[in-house]
Design brief:
The complex is a heterotrimer of chains A (about 425), B (about 325) and C (about 270). Chain A is mainly α and about 425 residues long. Helix content of chain A is about 70%, strand content about 0%. In chain A, helix 4 packs antiparallel against helix 5, helix 4 packs across helix 11 and helix 5 runs antiparallel to helix 11. With about 325 residues, chain B is mainly alpha-helical. Classes of the chains: A mainly alpha (about 425), B mainly alpha (about 325), C alpha/beta (about 270).
Chain lengths: ~425, ~325, ~270
C-alpha cells in the first residue's frame, strides 16, 4: 500500500496520533459505567417482585428494539410486521415445552427451557429469513407494505392454528426451575440482553456491520467494494429474526402463557416508534428508548400526583398513555430531533467511548483542529511565530476540511439522513 | 387505452364467474356481489392513498384514521351530543373537521419533511395514525359504539336484490359515490386547471414552481382532499360494520386499500378503482373457496385460517415481484 | 501479453431503449485504454455491464480469458477489478477510515459468523485492518480526516479518497469513470502524470471514461469512441481525435443526442 500512497499524492506534514484518554481518564469512564450498570442490577435486586417483572419486560423490549434496529437502523428497511417473528417464536417455544418436553404446570427443566429458547431463536430467524428473501427484490415503501401484510397474515392465520396456539386459552410456558421468581427471571433476561448486545457490538465493529451499513447507503458501491449484497441482506434479516425470536421466547416464559392477543400489529408499530425515538442505528439509544416505552406507564405510577390525576380525574389506566406519548415523541423526534434519545445523550456516550468530552459532535473535525496545535507544538514555535504559521498552515487545513456549521449536530445515519429511500 | 383493456378484462372475468356459478346456491355469486361492494370501499380509500402518493410520493398510513375520525365526529354529533341536525348535515360538518385536521397535519408534519427520505415520512404518518388511535381509545374507550347508517332507504327501496344477495342501501350508496367520484375525478384531472396543476406537481415539482404554481398550495390541496375522501369513506362504511371502535378503518380497511392501490398502480387514479374491486373480489372469492373446497375431509378454511389475508398477501407479493407498477401505473 | 478485459458483442436494452449494441472492447495488459463519446452514449452503462451491475442481453465479458458474464459483482471485484463512479463511489454514512476498511472487505481474514460470535481472530484482524488503513491515510495526508464524515468534505478530497480506497485493494484492472471531472487543465494534467506513474508502480491496466481531450491524448494508448450505444470507431488517440465522424458526434451529433435524452431521460 505504500507505493500506492506515495504515487497518489505528495503527503502533507500533518501526521499525528489520534487522541486517547489517559489512564485516569479510562478509570473515570470505567467508574461511571460500573455505577450505571451496578445501579441497574442493584435496583433489580431490591425492588419488589412485581417491579422486577416490569424490569424484565423492559429488558425484553430492549432486545426487540435491538432486533428491529438491525433492519431499520443498520439496513435501512422498515419492518412493520416484527410482531410476527416475536409471536411465532413465542408460540413455538411454548408449544415445545408444553407438548414435547412435557414440562409440569409449575416449572420447566433448564434443559427444556434452553431447547425451547433455541427453537424460538431458530423459528424467529427462519420467519425473518423468508422476509429477507423478499427484501432482495422489493425495497423501501413497498417492502414496508409487504411486512405489514405479512404481519397481518401471521396474526390471522398462523396465530389461529389450534394445535399451536390452543385458541383463546393460550399455550402455557412455565418458568425454568431456579428462575421461577420474577426477580430471578429478570436477571436471566439481563444475561440474554448482554449476549444480544455483545453480538450486536461484534457485528457493527466487524466487516459484517460495515457491509450492512454500506448496503443501506449505496448498494452499487457496496457491491463494487466486493460485498455480497444478497448474503448480507439475508444475514441482517436472519439475525434480526433471531433476536426477535429470543425476545419472543422470553416473553412466553415471562408471561407463562402465550396468547395471540399479545402480538398484534399495534405492538409492531409501537416497536418501530420506540426504535425511532431511541435513535436509529444507535444501540444505547435504542435500549434506553425501548426500556422507556416499556416502563412508561409504571413511571406514571411512581409520580403520586400524576398517578392520581390520571387514574382519578381522567379515570384512565396509565398504560393507555404509552402510545399517545410514544407516538407524540416519535413525531417530535422525526421533525425536530432526528437522532432521538441517542443524540441527546451523545456527549456522554462519546465520552464513555473514549473521546474527549464535548457538547458538540466532532466527527473528526474536532480532531482536525488539534493538528494545528500539534503541528505548531511539534515545530516548537513560540506564540508570535505561531500566529504567522497559523495563517499558512490553516490555509491547507481549511482547504481539506470545511467544518459543518459549528454546533450543528450531525445526524446519525437514520431517519433524516440524506439517502434515498 | 390500457385502462379500457384492464377494465374490460375484469368485467369479463366477473361475468365468467357469475355465468359458471349461475343457479348454484353454494356458488360464488353472492360472494361476488359482496366482494365488489366491499371493493368499492377499498377503492374509495385507495383513491386517497394514490392522491397522496402522486403528490408527496409517500404511503399515507394516516388515510384510515381520517375515516375513523370522521366516523367518530358524526357519532358525537348524532348519537352522543344529539345536536338535532340532520344526519347529512352532521356528516358535512365532520367532513369539514377532518379536512382541517388533514391540512393541519400537512403543515405540521409533511411540510418540514419535504426533503426527508420517504421512509421517514412513512414513519411519521404511522406515528400520527397511532397517536390518533390512542387518543380515540382514551376519549371514546375501546367498547364498540353503534353508528347508524346515513340512509336506510335509497330511491324508496330498503334493499337492493342482486344475484340472491341483498345489498343494504348504504352499501349501494357507496358504490354510487365511487362511481360519481370516478367520473368527477376523471373530469377534474383532465379538464380543470387545478387538476392539471396537481398532476404537474407530482411529476415535476421544480418545473411546476417555475411556471408559477405554488408547490405548497398543491401539497395542502392534496392532503386536504385525501383527508376529505378518507373521512367520507369512514362515515359511509363504519355504520355497515356495526361497530365503531378506535382504529376501525385502519385495522380493517387500510391494508386491503394499500394492496388495492399497489395492484392498480400507486400512480394511477383509475387504478385505485380497479385495484379496489380486484382486492374485494380476491378476498371474498378466497373466502368462498375456503368454505367450499376441501382437502382430504376437512374444509380448507379449517386448515388455513384467515384465507383472505393469505390470498391478499400473496397477491401483493406477486404484483410487486412481477409488475411493481401495478396494472395501470406508469412507474415502479 | 493477452487481453486483461475482453468485451465481446455486448448489447443491452432497457425496455425499448437500446443502450448498447454489439460493443467490442479489448483492453490489453498494462495499457491505458480510453472510452470517449458524447453524453448518453452508453459509457457508464458499459462499465455497469463489465462490473455486473447490469446483465447484458447479448455478448460476453471475459477477464484474463475467463468468462465472467455470470458472476455477481462482488466476485468480479474479488478477481481484481476496481472501479470508480461518476458521482464519487463512496459510502456516505461511513467515515473516511471506515470507507477504506470497507473497500478491503473481500480480503479480510475472518468469516462473518466468527465475527458475530466474537472469535478472537476477528479482533486481531480488525486491529490489523484499522492500522493498515490508517497508515495509508497517513501517507496520502488525510490522517486527520480519518474519523470525518464524508459530507462537507470538498470534491477534490473525496475524489482522492475514492481513488485511494480503490487502489488500496490492489486491483489488476482499474475502471475509471470520468476521473478528471471537476478538475481544471493543470490538475487534469497532473492527474495524467500520476496515472502513468501508478500504472508503472502498481502494474495497472486501465479502462477510462473521459471527456477531457488533452488527458486522453496524453495518457491513453488506445481509444474507443462510443455513440448511441455503438462503437463508432477505435484507434490511437491522435487518429481518433481527428476522425470526422467523431467530431460530428460531439458537435453535430450532440444536438440530436440532447433531444433523445429528453425523451428517454438516460444518463451516460
Amino acid at each position: 500500500m505504500a507505493a500506492t500512497a506515495e504515487a497518489v499524492t505528495s503527503p502533507l506534514p500533518v501526521a499525528q496520533s489520534r487522541w486517547s484518554p489517559t489512564a485516569k481518564g479510562w478509570a473515570a469512564r470505567l467508574l461511571v459505567l460500573v455505577a450505571i450498570f451496578g445501579g441497574v442490577i442493584w435496583a433489580t435486586a431490591i425492588v419488589p417482585q412485581y417491579w422486577a417483572d416490569r424490569i424484565s419486560l423492559a429488558v425484553i423490549f430492549a432486545i426487540i428494539g435491538l432486533s428491529l434496529n438491525i433492519v431499520l437502523g443498520y439496513l435501512g428497511q422498515v419492518s412493520l410486521g416484527h410482531h410476527a417473528f416475536v409471536g411465532i417464536a413465542a408460540f413455538v417455544s411454548a408449544y415445545y415445552v408444553t407438548e414435547k418436553a412435557g414440562c409440569s404446570a409449575e416449572k420447566c427443566s433448564l434443559g427444556a427451557f434452553s431447547a425451547g429458547l433455541v427453537f424460538a431463536i431458530l423459528s424467529g430467524g427462519a420467519a425473518a429469513g423468508l422476509l429477507g428473501l423478499v427484501a432482495l427484490r422489493i425495497k423501501g415503501l413497498y417492502l414496508a407494505l409487504i411486512t405489514l401484510s405479512y404481519g397481518f397474515m401471521a396474526e390471522r392465520s398462523i396465530f389461529e392454528i389450534p394445535f399451536l396456539t390452543r385458541g383463546g386459552a393460550g399455550m402455557p410456558a412455565p418458568r425454568p426451575e431456579g428462575f421461577t421468581t420474577d426477580r430471578a427471571f429478570a436477571f436471566l433476561c439481563f444475561i440474554f440482553l448482554a449476549l444480544v448486545i455483545f453480538v450486536d457490538w461484534r457485528m457493527i465493529k466487524s466487516k459484517v456491520g460495515r457491509a450492512v451499513l454500506s448496503i443501506k447507503h449505496s448498494e452499487p458501491v457496496a457491491a463494487s467494494y466486493g460485498i455480497n449484497v444478497t448474503a448480507y441482506k439475508c444475514m441482517a434479516f436472519i439475525l434480526s429474526g433471531m433476536f426477535a425470536g429470543l425476545a419472543g421466547g422470553l416473553l412466553a416464559f415471562r408471561a407463562t402463557n402465550v396468547v395471540s392477543n399479545d402480538f398484534n400489529f399495534a405492538n409492531a408499530l409501537l416497536w418501530v416508534l420506540m426504535v425511532v425515538v431511541g435513535g436509529l442505528g444507535n444501540r444505547t439509544g435504542v435500549v434506553i428508548g425501548s426500556a422507556f416505552f416499556a416502563l412508561f406507564p409504571f413511571l406514571i405510577e411512581l409520580i403520586g400526583p400524576l398517578d392520581k390525576f390520571v387514574s382519578g380525574t381522567l379515570n384512565r389506566n396509565p398504560a393507555e398513555f404509552t402510545p399517545v406519548i410514544g407516538a407524540a415523541l416519535a413525531i417530535l423526534t422525526i421533525i425536530r430531533f432526528p437522532g432521538g434519545i441517542a443524540e441527546q445523550l451523545s456527549p456522554i456516550t462519546r465520552w464513555l467511548g473514549g473521546k474527549r468530552f464535548s457538547m458538540h459532535p466532532d466527527g473528526g473535525h474536532g480532531d482536525a483542529h488539534s493538528p494545528k496545535k500539534t503541528v505548531l507544538s511539534k515545530l516548537g514555535l513560540h506564540k508570535g511565530e505561531a500566529e504567522a504559521a497559523t495563517d499558512a498552515s490553516s490555509e491547507e487545513i481549511r482547504n481539506d476540511e470545511e467544518p459543518n456549521l459549528a454546533g450543528q449536530p450531525e445526524e446519525p445515519a437514520g431517519v433524516s439522513g440524506r439517502e434515498d429511500s | 387505452m390500457r385502462t379500457a383493456i384492464v377494465t374490460g378484462a375484469l368485467v369479463a372475468l366477473i361475468a365468467a364467474i357469475l355465468f359458471m356459478g349461475a343457479g348454484d346456491p353454494t356458488g360464488p355469486n353472492s360472494y361476488v356481489v359482496i366482494g365488489l361492494s366491499q371493493g368499492a370501499v377499498y377503492g374509495l380509500v385507495a383513491i386517497g392513498l394514490v392522491l397522496v402518493y402522486k403528490g408527496s410520493r409517500v404511503f399515507n398510513f394516516l388515510q384510515g384514521e381520517f375515516g375513523t375520525l370522521g366516523a367518530f365526529a358524526v357519532f358525537l354529533m348524532v348519537q352522543q351530543w344529539k345536536v338535532g341536525l340532520p344526519y347529512w348535515a352532521c356528516a358535512l360538518i365532520a367532513l369539514a373537521a377532518v379536512t382541517i385536521i388533514g391540512i393541519g397535519f400537512e403543515r405540521i408534519v409533511v411540510r418540514p419533511l419535504l426533503n426527508a427520505p420517504r421512509i421517514t415520512v412513512l414513519v411519521a404518518t404511522i406515528a400520527t395514525a397511532l397517536f390518533a388511535i390512542a387518543m380515540e381509545l382514551l376519549v371514546f374507550r375501546p367498547e364498540p359504539k353503534i353508528l347508524p347508517p346515513m340512509v336506510d332507504s335509497l330511491f324508496g327501496k330498503k334493499g337492493f336484490e342482486i344475484l340472491s344477495f341483498t345489498l343494504e342501501p348504504q352499501r349501494f350508496l357507496i358504490v354510487l359515490v365511487l362511481a360519481g367520484l370516478a367520473i368527477g375525478l376523471g373530469y377534474f384531472f383532465s379538464r380543470t386547471d387545478l387538476g392539471l396543476a396537481v398532476l404537474a406537481t407530482s411529476q415535476d415539482p421544480f418545473a411546476t414552481r417555475v411556471v408559477g404554481i405554488g408547490v405548497e398550495r398543491m401539497s395542502r390541496f392534496i392532503w386536504a382532499s385525501a383527508a376529505f375522501l378518507g373521512a367520507l369513506a369512514g362515515i359511509l362504511y363504519v355504520p355497515l360494520t356495526g361497530a365503531l371502535t378506535p382504529g376501525a378503518m385502519t385495522t380493517g380497511i387500510l391494508i386491503p386499500a394499500f394492496t388495492a392501490a399497489v395492484i392498480g398502480g400507486m400512480t394511477s387514479l383509475p387504478g385505485a378503482f380497479v385495484g379496489g374491486l380486484t382486492v374485494g373480489l380476491v378476498q371474498s372469492l378466497s373466502n368462498w373457496a375456503a368454505n367450499h373446497y376441501t382437502l382430504g375431509d376437512r374444509l380448507l378454511q379449517d386448515i388455513i385460517k384467515g384465507a383472505p389475508d393469505v390470498a391478499l398477501t400473496l397477491a401483493l407479493l406477486i404484483v410487486l415481484l412481477a409488475r411493481p407498477q401495478g396494472l395501470l401505473g406508469k412507474e415502479a | 501479453m493477452g487481453a486483461v478485459l475482453e468485451v465481446k458483442n455486448t448489447g443491452i436494452r432497457f425496455g425499448g431503449l437500446v443502450a448498447l449494441d454489439d460493443v467490442n472492447v479489448n483492453v490489453p495488459e498494462w495499457e491505458i485504454v480510453g472510452l470517449i463519446g458524447p453524453n448518453g452514449a452508453g459509457k457508464t452503462t458499459l462499465f455497469n455491464c463489465i462490473m455486473g451491475a447490469y446483465a447484458p442481453n447479448t455478448g460476453s465479458i471475459s477477464f484474463r480469458g475467463r468468462d465472467i458474464s455470470l458472476l455477481p459483482t462482488h466476485r468480479r471485484t474479488a478477481l481484481g477489478i476496481g472501479r470508480t463512479f461518476q458521482n464519487i463511489g463512496l459510502i456516505r454514512g461511513l467515515s473516511v477510515l471506515e470507507n477504506f476498511m470497507v473497500a478491503q472487505h473481500p480480503r479480510i481474514g475472518y468469516g462473518a459468523i466468527g465475527a458475530l460470535l466474537g472469535a478472537p481472530r476477528s479482533f486481531a484482524e480488525e486491529r490489523k485492518l484499522k492500522a493498515n488503513a490508517l497508515e495509508v491515510l497517513d501517507f496520502i495526508g488525510l490522517a486527520h480526516l480519518a474519523d470525518s464524515q464524508l459530507d462537507g468534505l470538498p470534491y477534490g478530497t473525496l475524489k482522492l479518497i475514492e481513488v485511494g480506497t480503490v487502489l488500496a485493494t490492489d486491483p489488476d484492472l482499474l475502471l475509471l469513470d470520468e476521473p478528471s471531472s471537476g478538475m481544471g487543465p493543470d490538475e487534469a494534467h497532473e492527474f495524467g502524470e500520476r496515472l502513468l506513474r501508478l500504472r508503472q508502480m502498481l502494474n495497472l491496466t486501465v479502462l477510462m471514461i473521459e471527456h477531457h481531450v488533452p488527458l486522453v491524448v496524453g495518457v491513453c494508448d488506445y481509444v474507443y469512441v462510443l455513440n448511441f450505444g455503438k462503437v463508432l470507431t477505435e484507434g490511437k488517440p491522435q487518429e481518433v481525435r481527428s476522425h470526422p465522424e467523431v467530431i460530428a458526434a460531439y458537435l453535430g451529433g450532440e444536438v440530436e443526442q440532447e433531444e433523445q435524452e429528453e425523451g428517454a431521460g438516460v444518463a451516460s
